Queue: 2 jobs
Job 1
Amino acid sequence: MAEPVIHARDLGRRYGGRWALGRVDLDLEPGERLLLMGQNGGGKTTLLRVLSTLVAPSRGVLRIFGLDPAREPNRIRRRLALLSHLPSLYEDLSGPDNLQVVARLLGRPGDPTPWLERVGLEPRPDPVHTYSAGMRKRLSFARLLLKEPDLALIDEPYGQLDPAGHAMVDALLRDMAERGTTVIVASHLVDRACVLCGRALLLHEGLPRWSGPSDRAPRAWSAFHAEAPASGGAA
Amino acid sequence: MRLLLALVRKDLLVGWRGRARLVGLSTYAVTLLLLFSFALGPDSTTLHEHAPAYAWVAILSASTLLLAQSFQQEVEGGALEGLLLLPVSPTAMFYAKALANLLLLLFLALVLLPVSVVLFGLRPAGSPVALAGVLALGGAGLVAPGTLYAALTARVKAQQVLLPVLLFPLVVPPLLAAVKATSLLLEGDPMHQVGTWVGLLATFDVLYWSLCGVLFGRVVEE
């Protein structure tokens, strides 16, 4: 049996006196796709940052690709990519320049045009600070694809994109699934994202509130909103 | 080494594409030199005596802005996190950033040198190669701790204030040695003292480049 890509038990993260994440148990097999749901501040981004190894957990057990992130972060980082709220781009460089920088650092220099075309961008020489928010998002996606990760952590993939961009994200997520990439997507567009994922996890105030197959996620999400849960916080 | 060169290339490319900022910094440093020369008055002896000190203070002052900008770009759009996840080792990141900052600082010094010669009426007595060496060693003494502290303060709102407050005390020894060595090269060195100051400068460079390289990982990683 293949080693799980992610194995987490009682995972938690505290900022000061406040637990932003707690009691998360998660096992993800290679090629699985998980949808993370939750309100703003629900813990989705914190979970993605912990899984990316950028933020250390405050408690619990975490193994990624069978490795301990505290001991071997770089071996894990080589195989994962994170698309976060921040675009991870250099504002004064053009889109092609940004991708070339990443490609050179990965030791795979080459023409970035195919990667730009995959996200619907042209290889224009204009600096990124002249791009619209949607174009930056597309470029960030190209940056993620360029790395060809085994594990993709994607925070709000549809944010700032127009309907054509939404369709592009759907196609890219399908493509990643076909390639066997393990994907975790955090999104508020549950109806859209659940179609592309196999499982779903609902976080509220840092705590797992519901988990199950993604085809049941829209109903769970609606029920969660109808309940309008009171604040509690992870502990 | 391939990674280091790719990082230096990236930092220089970012510097080149944002060259308007470098032009602004050069203008700022030249203006400082102008103000110093006006404040000293027309006495040529006084101008000669103080020229190296004022030139280095102008370099130091402009360098704090340069260093702050160099990390602002990394932090604002999350580029630093992107590098860490590639993954790029913080040590390579530090040495690349410090090298790129040193090259940009030397460019600044190249602009300031002819201005100083004209404003302060200097006639350099030492060899230009030795002077370039002192500029490089002095610049290295500023950028190593400067790069570390720029990373440390990059997420702080009051970075423009905090960076010089932290940095200036630390760079007093290399700054003093650089001023003395520059002064001896410009005005003559009958007692052959320049070697001692250059040795002191090199010692601090080795110390700062080693120590800051080790500490940098703790600054950029959580």
Note: The longest helix of chain B spans residues 44-76.
Job 2
Amino acid sequence: MARGGAGMSTPLVAVIQFPGSNCEYETKAVIDASGMQGRIFRWNQWRELNDASPDAFILPGGFSFQDRVRAGAVGAKERIMDFVVERAGDGLPVLGICNGAQILVESGLVPGWTSGSVQAGLASNHIEGRSGYLSRWTFLKVSDHAQLVSPWLSYLSGKVVPVPIAHAEGRFVFFPGDAGRIADCSALVYCDENGEESPDYPINPNGSTENLAGIMNPAGNVLAMMPHPERAFWLWQVPIRTPGEWGDRRISANHSTAISISRGPGELFFRGLAESLAVTASEET
Amino acid sequence: MSSIAIAVRLKAPDPAAATALSTMKRISPEETPDLLQRYDYWEFTGIECTENTVREIVEHFDDIVNPNKQSWSFTPSGGLPADDGDHTSAGVLVTDREDSISENWTAILKRRGFPVEKVMHSVLWIFGFSREISCTRLKSIVAGQAVTSRRDAGLLANPVSQTVRLILEEQAGDLLNR
């Protein structure tokens, strides 16, 4: 069956809406703005999702099932995730943002060292003098290996990008016995505007192991990240006092009419996916 | 050093417990309890910490117990709260391995002069079975639902970030402490 519906030429990206998701519409909007077609599927529309046969999946941010039991724990067990897990196994791109990342971790899709097993946790923020819910801008850089294998990260090579976070449980943790292979799943790390890493607040905002902001599965097609790239898609979304290249761009564009359409750092994630899907489509034809 | 534990629950039906029970029924319909209750479980430890100390803390801080919507009772440390029905019960105590809630409350109570050396916050899930059930079967069901090992197995705790303690009547032991 042709993916993306009845032979559609525009790649279809499914945005899965769980009860309590709250970023699905802006996520769909940036997919559309990236030249792909975004479509929101409710958590109980697994038949429709199957029929639509999307080219990629995004689990957006929010508070699925009100974070009851544990963030992402209930959403991970929904039937619609059967289909996402199956397609992830086929190599289709899957991105979990914030609460979506928590669902992917609870699904065992990432780090995915042993298929289906839950091998990581997104624990509550825990850093000296700071705890609880945190909303702020952070800087990210992509790991060397990830930029080569992840469809979401190919345009971030060598770049430091500001992207905001907003979470209470965003600290990636692993079993002590897995310490030796964390680097294998590292996709995005927190850093300062110059790309320097530190385990200290505010550079690492939540105490995440190895400063991890995002992890991926061994194949690289599944990415779970706590920062919100859809909230940094347009340049006007970047705070004007942001240090570094993107802050300079923001200041330069401040009095320009072009600022309303100028792309921000978060757009790089979606541009990478669009290019990846276009390449896939051309190979299939 | 003495430890005083309290269990706090909503006066109204707990939506988190309802969601957890319905999720258990969906993922493993044969392995579910008849009743599931959720408590916030607080343990206060200190050389001079007494029930009166804890009563004073509870009355002073409505972040721990909001009397408008929550009720509380003393609970045997490492045990189950008093049963309010004819159920055979077992408990699962879920604690974050690194928990800023516990650390913050320890700091707050020390700063306010309470004789408390350590506060530990956990979530206590009580499984209730109205049917006849063997201890082995009960333990199997509770253990199976307690730890999320796979997407389709277990629910209440992520073993990477949380510890789990299984509490049976008169019997407690570490279920998982990898």
Note: Helices of chain B lie at 15-27, 51-60, 100-111, 135-146.
